[in-house]
Each structure stands twice: as structure tokens, then as C-alpha cells.
Design the sequence.
């Protein structure tokens, strides 16, 4: 029963992977798929599993995250008991805020103690999927695991920090590697940063780690105890997009143009996000739009192909936008040409500019820039 | 000190809207979809919120279910307040008597206790069947400045249409000396917009008098306003010269939708200084495919376009399959237009399926009228729905 679980989302823990988009916001609040933030997928998966309390662990740059979350009502998480509970870093003048996951966990022991749920779902807001958390919790109960780690099979990894698992037939994990060499390996069981753990067990681990002076959750707790703890792997076969670098961000954004991917992620219409009351998008006479996702509030006079337009984007007359991701309120003037470009929010591209990148290295324009 | 609100709005949303035919078989007129993501009632509600009026009674009577659900706790309009907010006011049973709302004035009369709870100085009466953006705060300020007992918002209409409206005959200072409901020979083209500001005490007084009058039709335009004028109360007009459209007929609803299109639309719903709030659909961005063509149209979230869309308004989650063509039409949410079907000069309600190769309506230039398909119906493959027809059940051809 997922109702006896509480969610914890780490919004900053993977920030290093994609500094272009997370220098001024938490990784979890990176815009994705035209109208969402990465955290929407984590929150929606938790909520759709019946979880009604989600702690949001933040460290820095979380203004945009707070603005996005508001009271939590858009996820049905404005609750008297539980709901969204922001967990900003606890630190005094001498201590810096947490440096790693273990310190982040130490900082939320009070929250964990006060909850009554049996399980905690630890979720990094860096992945896009329709993961059935209720099923993961069911698996966790059935295997009587201490810890269940969700993984998916992939043939390549691009991240500063990653964990691969070697589960046996029953799913039990007897060996776990951190940042292993992957040369030529075809079937990598990559941990996707979602974990279910008994709440009290987790508190014991943290307590123990404090006393032992540990500093790494992965190395000193998971890797060291893989034999003695019951750690199980839950294999996730669905669509998974790990946003671990700018080229990956670009690649997965483009995959949203694939109907089968969209149907899996959004088919049931239950990925929730903040609502902003934009007007529906307008296609002016002469506009040409092909193979593109268009969010609300856009006004399109030019040509848009193979692209993703976030809320409130404007494309002027005679402009041609191809293979690009234009975030909220990007204004493209007239007779502009863009190819393989990612613009962050509130970018203005003046008339007759030509910008282009390539799929491996998309041309990135930072937030608020005027070109 | 007693808590109070300076102004309480009462929104008359009980109308059946019988001239919208199939579109209002199951829902009240204010709940009819408009402009790809809105419903008609979003406009007066947004106007209230944007004008700083946070207490709104919505009077419902005809098929209120969908409207009640849509309004819910009022959160989409920021009207979920601990004191004030939006409240659905349905006819109720009382100890002495109980009755359906008999007319616009009677509906307000029956909810006197709701208004009095907020001890307002002024009451704003609105109707739920117009598309417009208006700052009621300015109208209220004019009412106060004039020291009026009642102020009626008024707009100039073409003189040949004036006999369809309540016509105000006014002095130079805007004060009203005559009110004629739907006159055969209108003396002016200044029409009442059905928006009234009353000084609360005067409203209560005339509603009481109206209730005791056995000959009264219990209507604001026909009974209460003339009675106040006859009694010499100070009544003023308040001129409005923006966009205002009564969408009570199919052609008017169609036209008003079309007024949203273009780079410089007759009516702009995207104005950031006057946001129109609404309950938003849960849907991903719309997708226009390689084969899709969208020209001079407005498309809402969740649509999937594989065919051609021209001069049209599509609400959320509409699917237009490959080879299908939609021209000069308004399509409401969840409707599916199958392969190679054609929809011309039509208004199609929610969750309709138009089968493969079916043809709905005819080219606007030659059509006898707008074709209308009611909600939740299926038009079979290969059939033709004649132009100007109104269909409200599954259609398999003649």
C-alpha cells in the first residue's frame, strides 16, 4: 500500500550534471516538454501512487522551485496533514549547507521522525518517466527488502555520478558499483535515483552514519553493506529520460516529438504541473508548423519544425525555427533562423539573426539574454 | 466591527440558452465552451477578480451540474476565500415557501440573505452570457461619483438591432430619463448590457416591493428598473465602448470565437493586463505532426493535429486525423475527427466522433447556416450532415 509511504525529492543533488540550466535554478525545476518542470514527473508519480506527503529537499537557487510549487494545490498536495513540505537546508553561521546526500538526509531527520508512514521513497528530480511507485512499494514489501533501488537497462551513461547494479534472479543485489568503467558494455543496469526504504531503517542508517563520521551514502552505506543488507533492484522497463547533461536534455526533449513516448508519459493525462492561465496558442495566417509541440500562450507567424515551444513563445514573420527548444517567453523576431538551439526563459532574438548548433552540441542561450 | 464587503456581485447563470439548441441540452449557457479553453462564465468571473470584487454569488437553475463542478471551490479564479469567494446559489426549500427562480429579480430576491451576510454598500448584478472585458471598479466609481441609486452599463448598438435590447434614453450627464425594454420604435441606440450597480439598500427595497406586486414579472429589465425610474430614483448610464458580445445564438457564438483569431484580433484573450482565468485542462502541449497544417487558428493544449485546420478554434484534446480537414469551425474538447473527414462552417460540441470520410456542413460561402453537433455523439463514417443542420444524437445518415 503506497499510502503508507512518504516521498522525499532531492532537488539539487544532481545539479553538477547540467550547469547551463541549473546554475540559476534547482535541477528539479528545469523546464521540460513544453509545459513541465522535471519535478512534475517525480511529484505526479508519487501522487498517482496515493502518496500525499512529499518533502522537498532544497539547497540553493530554489526561488523558481518555490514559485513553481506554490501551495502544492496543482498536484493536489495542499493538505492539512502532509502535502508538500519544503525542507530547506538547516545550517548556522559556521556550518555550510549540506555537501552530499548523507548530509542532506541528516538535515531531514526531524521530518522523517515526525512522519508515521512505513516507507520513504527517495527520489531525485532528474528523471522523466511514468514510474509506478505503488508497484515499486509492492515489490519492496514482497521481497521484504531493506532497500529497493529502481534501475533501467541502458547502453550508455553520461553523468558525473552514477551507480550500476548486479541483481540476481530474485532481484537481490549482491554487488553495486559507483562510477564503474563501462567500455563497450551493452547492458548496463543503471540505478535511476529512485529508492524505497523502510522509514525507521533509514533513520537508523543515518544515525549510524553520523556516529561513524561517514560522508557518502553511496560508497559508505550502499556499497559497503550490499552483502549484509537486503538490497533489491526493481527493474523499470518503461520510458526513462535521465537529464544528465545538456546534449541529453536536448536528445530527450526531441524524443517528446515521438507519439509513442508522449502516449506513455501523458496518455493517462495525469502529469500535473503549475497552471498559469495563458491563452491558447495562436497560429497566424501564413504560419507553418510541422512535427512540433506547442504550449499555450504562443503566437506563431513564421515556420516551426521539429521543435518544442514552451508557454508564451513568439515567432515573428519570416522566421524559421528548426530542431530547437525554446523555453518560456522566448521572443523570436522576424526573419530569424534557428537550428538546434536551446533558449532558456525570457530570451529575445532580434530580427535577422541566424543561430545554429548541432545535436551533439546544441547552441545554448542563457536566461534573459538579448541577442 | 462587523466584517463587510464594499461590493458583492450576483451573477445570473440560470438561463437555459434555448437558442443555442443542442449545445445547451445538457448544460447551462454560462458553461458553454468558448475560445478553445474558456467557458462563457470565465469572462464575468475574471472581470470580477480583476476588478477587485472577490465575493460572487452564482445563481444557477437550469442543468447546474456541470457548471457547479466547473466552478468548484473557485480556486481557478482565485475565489476560494475564507470570507467571500464564489458561491453557487441554487433555488432552495424554505420553511414558509419554496420555489424555482421566477425571473431575474426574483432570483436575486430569494438570495437576499446571502448578500446581506456581507453587509455590502453596493451590489453588482451580472449575467453569464456575454463575452467582454470590463473593469467593474470603474463603473462602481462612476456610480459613487454620481451619487446614483442604480447605474446601468450601456453600449451603442446598430440602430436596426436596437429593438432587441433594453434601450436607455439619457440626458447629457448620463442620467436616465426613460428605460424601454425591447422597444418597437427605439429612440436611441444606447443598449443596456444587463450589468447593474445598485446601492444595496435601494436594491433591497425595490426587490421587496417587486415581490409584493402580483402583477410583476419579477424581471429587472421589465419590472424593477422601470419601477425605480417611476419612483424618481437617481439612475445613471455607464458608457462602455469595448468589445461586448451576447453569445446567446449559434451565429453569435461562432462569430465571437472567430473574433479571437489573427495577429490583431477584435477581442484579445491573451492580454496580460486583463487575464481571463479558467479551469485548465490536464494535458501536454498540442502536437502538430509532419502532415498537419494549421492556418489562422487557435489550438488548445492536448490537441493532436495530423490533418488540416484553417480559420478554426479547437479546444483541448481534439484529435484531427490525417487527411481530415476543418475549416471555419469551432470544435470543443475531446472531439475526434477521423481520417479524411471534413468539417466545414460548423460548431461541434465536446466528445463527438466524426467518422472517416464523413462530411459535416458545407463551404461557408454557400452554406445555408452553421451546422451543429451536440455533445457525446458519433457521426458514422461516409455520411453527410447537411449544412445548417442541428444534430443531438448519433447520426447514421438520412
Sequence:
Amino acid at each position: 500500500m503506497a499510502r503508507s509511504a512518504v516521498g522525499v525529492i532531492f532537488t539539487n543533488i544532481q545539479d553538477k550534471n547540467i550547469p547551463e540550466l541549473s546554475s540559476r535554478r534547482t535541477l528539479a525545476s528545469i523546464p521540460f516538454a513544453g509545459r513541465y518542470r522535471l519535478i512534475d514527473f517525480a511529484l505526479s508519480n508519487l501522487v498517482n501512487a496515493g502518496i500525499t506527503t512529499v518533502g522537498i529537499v532544497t539547497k540553493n537557487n530554489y526561488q523558481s522551485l518555490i514559485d513553481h510549487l506554490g501551495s502544492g494545490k496543482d498536484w493536489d498536495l495542499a493538505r492539512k496533514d502532509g502535502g508538500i513540505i519544503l525542507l530547506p537546508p538547516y545550517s548556522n553561521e559556521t556550518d555550510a549547507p549540506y555537501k552530499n546526500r548523507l548530509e542532506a538526509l541528516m538535515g531531514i531527520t526531524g521530518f522523517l521522525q515526525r512522519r508515521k508512514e512505513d516507507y520513504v521513497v527517495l527520489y531525485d528530480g532528474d528523471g522523466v518517466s511514468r514510474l509506478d511507485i505503488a508497484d515499486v512499494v509492492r515489490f519492496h514489501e514482497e521481497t521484504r527488502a531493506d532497500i529497493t533501488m529502481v534501475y533501467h537497462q541502458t547502453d550508455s551513461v553520461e553523468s558525473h555520478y552514477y551507480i550500476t547494479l548486479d541483481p540476481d534472479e530474485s532481484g537481490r543485489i549482491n554487488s553495486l558499483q559507483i562510477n564503474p568503467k563501462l567500455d563497450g558494455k551493452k547492458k548496463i543496469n543503471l540505478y535511476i535515483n529512485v529508492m524505497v526504504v523502510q522509514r525507521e531503517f533509514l533513520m537508523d542508517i543515518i544515525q549510524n552514519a553520523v556516529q561513524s563520521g561517514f560522508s557518502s551514502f553511496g560508497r559508505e552505506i550502499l556499497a559497503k553493506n550490499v552483502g549484509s543488507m537486503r538490497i533489491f533492484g526493481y527493474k523499470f522497463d518503461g520510458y526513462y529520460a535521465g537529464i544528465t547533461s545538456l546534449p541529453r536534455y536536448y536528445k530527450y526533449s526531441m524524443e517528446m516529438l515521438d507519439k509513442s513516448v508522449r502516449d506513455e508519459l501523458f496518455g493517462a493525462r495525469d502529469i500535473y504541473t503549475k497552471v498559469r492561465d495563458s491563452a491558447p496558442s495562436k497560429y497566424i495566417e501564413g504560419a507553418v508548423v510541422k512535427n512540433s509541440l506547442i504550449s499555450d500562450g504562443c503566437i506563431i507567424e513564421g515556420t516551426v519544425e521539429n521543435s518544442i515551444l514552451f508557454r508564451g513563445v513568439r515567432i515573428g514573420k519570416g522566421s524559421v525555427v528548426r530542431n530547437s527548444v525554446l523555453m518560456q517567453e522566448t521572443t523570436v523576431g522576424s526573419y530569424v533562423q534557428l537550428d538546434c538551439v536551446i533558449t532558456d526563459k525570457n530570451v529575445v532574438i532580434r530580427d535577422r539573426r541566424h543561430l545554429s548548433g548541432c545535436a551533439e552540441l546544441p547552441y545554448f542561450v542563457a536566461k534573459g539574454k538579448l541577442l | 466591527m462587523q466584517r463587510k464587503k464594499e461590493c458583492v456581485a450576483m451573477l445570473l447563470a440560470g438561463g437555459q440558452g434555448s437558442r443555442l439548441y443542442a449545445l445547451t441540452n445538457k448544460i447551462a449557457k454560462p458553461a458553454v465552451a468558448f475560445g478553445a479553453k474558456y467557458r462563457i462564465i470565465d469572462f464575468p468571473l475574471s472581470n470580477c477578480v480583476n476588478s477587485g470584487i472577490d465575493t460572487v454569488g452564482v445563481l444557477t437553475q437550469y442543468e447546474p451540474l456541470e457548471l457547479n463542478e466547473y466552478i468548484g471551490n473557485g480556486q481557478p479564479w482565485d475565489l476560494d476565500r475564507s470570507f467571500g469567494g464564489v458561491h453557487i446559489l441554487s433555488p432552495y426549500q424554505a420553511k414558509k415557501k419554496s420555489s424555482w427562480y421566477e425571473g431575474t429579480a426574483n432570483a436575486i430576491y430569494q438570495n437576499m440573505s446571502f448578500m446581506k451576510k456581507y453587509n455590502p454598500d453596493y451590489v453588482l448584478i451580472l449575467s453569464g452570457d456575454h463575452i467582454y472585458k470590463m473593469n467593474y471598479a470603474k463603473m462602481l466609481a462612476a456610480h459613487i461619483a454620481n451619487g446614483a441609486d442604480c447605474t446601468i452599463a450601456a453600449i451603442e448598438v446598430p440602430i436596426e438591432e436596437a429593438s432587441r435590447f433594453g434601450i436607455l434614453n439619457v440626458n447629457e450627464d448620463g442620467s436616465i430619463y426613460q428605460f424601454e425594454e425591447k422597444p418597437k420604435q427605439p429612440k436611441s441606440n444606447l443598449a443596456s448590457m444587463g450589468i447593474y450597480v445598485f446601492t444595496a439598500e435601494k436594491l433591497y427595497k425595490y426587490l421587496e416591493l417587486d415581490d409584493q406586486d402580483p402583477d410583476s414579472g419579477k424581471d429587472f429589465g421589465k419590472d424593477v428598473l422601470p419601477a425605480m425610474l417611476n419612483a424618481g430614483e437617481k439612475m445613471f448610464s455607464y458608457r462602455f465602448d469595448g468589445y461586448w458580445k451576447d453569445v446567446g445564438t449559434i451565429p453569435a457564438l461562432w462569430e465571437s470565437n472567430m473574433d479571437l483569431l489573427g495577429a490583431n484580433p477584435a477581442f484579445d484573450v491573451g492580454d496580460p493586463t486583463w487575464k481571463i482565468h479558467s479551469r485548465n485542462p490536464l494535458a501536454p502541449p498540442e502536437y502538430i505532426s509532419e502532415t498537419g497544417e494549421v492556418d489562422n487558428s487557435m489550438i488548445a493544449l492536448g490537441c493532436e493535429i495530423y490533418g488540416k485546420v484553417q480559420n478554426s478554434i479547437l479546444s483541448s484534446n481534439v484529435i484531427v486525423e490525417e487527411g481530415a480537414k476543418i475549416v471555419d469551425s469551432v470544435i470543443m474538447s475531446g472531439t475526434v475527427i477521423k481520417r479524411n473527414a471534413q468539417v466545414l462552417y460548423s460548431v461541434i460540441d465536446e466528445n463527438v466522433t466524426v467518422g472517416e470520410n464523413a462530411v459535416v456542413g458545407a463551404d461557408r460561402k454557400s452554406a445555408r447556416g452553421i451546422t451543429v453537433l451536440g455533445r457525446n455523439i458519433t457521426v458514422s463514417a461516409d455520411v453527410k450532415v447537411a449544412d445548417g443542420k442541428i444534430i443531438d444524437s448519433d447520426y447514421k445518415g438520412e
Remarks:
- Chain B has eight helices and 31 strands.
- The radius of gyration of chain B is 22 Å.
- The longest helix of chain B spans residues 200-212.
- The mean pLDDT of chain B is 94.
